[in-house]
Protein 1
Amino acid sequence: MAEPTNTPMPPSTPVPASTPRSASPVRPIPSLTPNATTATIPFWTLPDASKKKRQTVLHIGDPIKYNPDTYLEFSQAFDIIRPTVAERERTEFIKALKERRWGDFSAIFRPFWGTGGEMGRWDAELISLLPNSVKVFASAGAGFDWADTELLAEKGIIYCNSGLAAAEAVADFAIAMIISTFRHLPWCMGAATLSLFASGSPDASAKDANARKAFQTCHAQATAASHNPRGHVLGLVGFGNIGQQIAAKMGNAAFGMKIAYFDVVRKSPAVERELGAVFYDTLSALMAASDCVVLCTPASPDGNPLITAETLASLRPGTRFVNIARGSLVDEDALADAVESGLVSAAALDVHADEPRVHPRLVKLASLEVENPGRVMLTCHNAGGTVETHIGFEELSMRNILAVLGGKDAITPVNLHLLRPQVVRSLT
């Protein structure tokens, strides 16, 4: 599933004191993790010895837009080749790799989601054609389900994403969606805007009457279905940067929610203590304990959904559900069943299994045309989409390449644990 054209650097949110900090040399940037008013990321420059033989970076996609100073240093350190749009189409891209049109390049740089993906999925067909000189693939975006990071690791290539850059934006969007599930905002907004479609139509009078009735009904009845988030249990599926940011924001004095989480790796006692988070060792246990479940975890490696009819059965009737992770994680028919039955009282989805198509049953449940209207909030994969996120995607991708080709540790590696030890040693 392709990443939409939207979606660095989030402003500050507090981060636990135990969160690892970057080593110098550094340039200060806005905070990327929950709890610090400032945070830093290493900005590695190449040592003089390595500049004697300039390495080549393959830049796929549009030119950079937001970080000219960093790009100046980047372009002074490397020879940069940017294939044309035509060369990035899959057939021509494969042909170029086979004929070694761009030589023995050392890195792949994709600073935007809107461009640079014309060749499609990075699978065995593409990866097998990469020269052995490639050490790092640094890309915009948090998700990496479009690239086989295991195959990249087998070829000795570190894949670096830019999820840190989007964390604040996604967490903020998630908060809006959480509040929506407690306050039924789609219903309230939809009923208030019906009158816009009444004037000027042949049956304007009847439509105006329906609009006024919808407004009055929502005003009278939404109260009985709405609740304050305070005191309710927020269950986070995934407790990485985004999950911790959501916890820091929703568990604070402003919203006062109780934080619970499930993750494949339990966080340190210091992180749990700082964020007031309770760990559950199974997904079903977390879902059974939660008043609102938020998906903020990477896509499953096997592509199978994590949220199915079976896992939804663990919920208590009336639980709320939010997905700002990946649409492929959810069996959308099962979710629609759960909303229709009342097992899920309200849902909010920013991502969808078949983007740009949205599941028709969920679209209907988001409308005012059903018995219990506006129970689903739907958006267009917008959670990470801010100018600040784009700035950070660009910056962080360049920093990762500077780090790896400079013999330093990658800043945001995804597949480092899959690389053979001898490959890791050769990169350091």
Note: The domain at 13-165+387-427 is CATH 3.40.50.720 (Rossmann fold).
Protein 2
Amino acid sequence: MSSIVKPTTSKNSGLLKRMWDAKILYLILLPGLIHLILFKLLPLFGLVIAFQDYSIFKGILDSKWIGIEHFSKFMSDPYFWKLVRNTLLLAFFNLLFVFPIPIIFALFVNEVRLSAVKRFVQTLSFFPYFISSAVIVSILYKVLSPQGGLVNQMLNLAGFESVFFMADPGWFRPLYVMLNVWQLFGYSAIIYMAAMTSIDPHLYEAADIDGANRFKKIINVTLPSISSTIVVMFILAIGQILTVDLDKILLMYNPSIYDTADVIQSYVYRQAFASDGFPNYSFGAAVGLMQSVIAFVLVMMANKVSKKYSESRLF
């Protein structure tokens, strides 16, 4: 019997010793783990209100259960398809521009030979990520103002009339995507630049021997070497295809652009925190849960496709 117990004890002791040796790393991990539990995992239990006629006075335990009534109400709402259309279009354009531009930028930065210039460009591109959405949208309002804005001044000099960009529904999506590109391209490019540092230098030397120029080395060496990173990031982006930057949208919001600016998340916000009467938390939770389920299905589909056509996948 002792011969069976000893290996298990020894194995557990070895695991505890390795954990103790790496205690600093686990200590660094602890804040992130606490944040994950408190703000990501524990709130999941609150999703039960999506199936209730929730009242803040009665609480979760005493509120009336109504099943999928909120889901049916949302899907039967005539406004439903407009919200889905606006969300998908905004997400599509976001994916079309915000996803590839950091890759292209990282490829160009990787080709810069002067390390001082490379560091300066990286720092300059990374800086917008730390600017809050409120400041970015405020800058946008100033630049595009029909009265004294830089863009309209240039249009006036060219003989055109001033355009009220922020009140034009047709300009909302381009402006939203442009802001996201400017704010995120430097931050997102770090992942691809980090992947490029692991590329074997001998591959570039072999390409030089074959007479490849810089462009051919990018196409035949750099891109294939970081393809697994690109696939994983694309799958993650697919999972967020129904997620938009609500802060930017609410800051850019005004009644004249509701036709293109109103998306599922802004609708959830209005329902959950309605200004007239009591907030409808249950309905907002139901719409949010439906959105998450759709995003999960999209991730599973994208992951399945990646397994079929590539070795890279999330799981």
Note: Residues 132 and 183 are 9 Å apart (CA to CA).
Protein 3
Amino acid sequence: MSKVYLKEQEYGKDRVRLAKVIRKEKWHEIIELTVRVLLDGEFETPYTKADNSMIVATDSIKNTIYILAKQLSCVENIEIFASEIGQHFITTYSHVHKATVSITKHKWTRMLIDGKFHDHSFLRDGDDVHDTKVVVSRKGIIIESGLKNLLVLKTTGSAFYGFLRDKCK
């Protein structure tokens, strides 16, 4: 009879929506994030022996994101926030060896009303988002970040020069 083993696994919580309003008297800032946390570690027994005693519940993962967002002042910087979330899971649970945290920051732009920026009104003026994927392990942290769906248009000043000139110019 062959031994049952788990070669690889990762589990967690996806599509955690988080909106944080930062109030500075009448002036508000809005941060909207979508967060995904995947945990990797010693999780063989739930799959091979139906023993869930080492599982961090997905609701606990979601609630941890909300609690850290309330406690930490770094939510606006998604690379740092993702690192903090990942660090939480690998330091709180010794059997979690790696946490992969992906965050999408949705864009909100302050509205201009009667020629003045409004204190607490915003609009979504494009599909571009700021994405990060942070892998936190006991060996270190790896961060990948960028922009997605950003459209740029220049109407002048974008000449291409210095290229090879031949008979086809």
Note: The mean pLDDT is 91.
Protein 4
Amino acid sequence: MASLSRSRRAFWGDIRFLVGIALVLLSIAAVWLIVAAADDASPVLRAHRTITQGEALTSDDFQVVEVGLGALADDYLAPEGLEPGQVAARTIAEGELVPARALTAADRLRTTTVVIESGTGIPEDVQAGTAVEVWSAPLLEDGRTFDVPRILVADAVVREVLRPEGVLADTRTRLEVVIGRADVADVLAAVTGGATLSVVPWESGE
């Protein structure tokens, strides 16, 4: 019996030894994976403010962050990838990692900005980067009444909200909006023709 008891103790001692070795190996593997993941981190640019389509870009618009993107690293903009003369090809949200395709050369962008005056109030959450529709109610021939409102620009983006300030300020709000160059003539014609313009925010679904 004594011999059997010693054999059992020796057996369980061996098991505990092997388990201990396995735990040590697992610990080493975990540390190696953590170090390997850190080594795979790539420096990319992150926007520290909302940047609207068409804005000229500088290094001041971004901060460099280290992110483990793996095979996707080439899809995002590295610090050395920012070149002079580049502009935002679309709105880049504050805090967003910047995709390389979100930048383009200024001469390739087919948008511009115009300042319009909204004849109706706009929601408080309309701000730089908000996608909006521009609606127009044309002035009728009598010069006093307006036609039924219709969509003038279906896919504009707010660059800046110029809200009135001061007690004696006009109650109407002006906005600088980004529109396609093909829409410029219609917008200017509506403004010079006395139409009432309004902006309506909408969700892009992206």
Note: The first helix runs from residue 2 to 40.
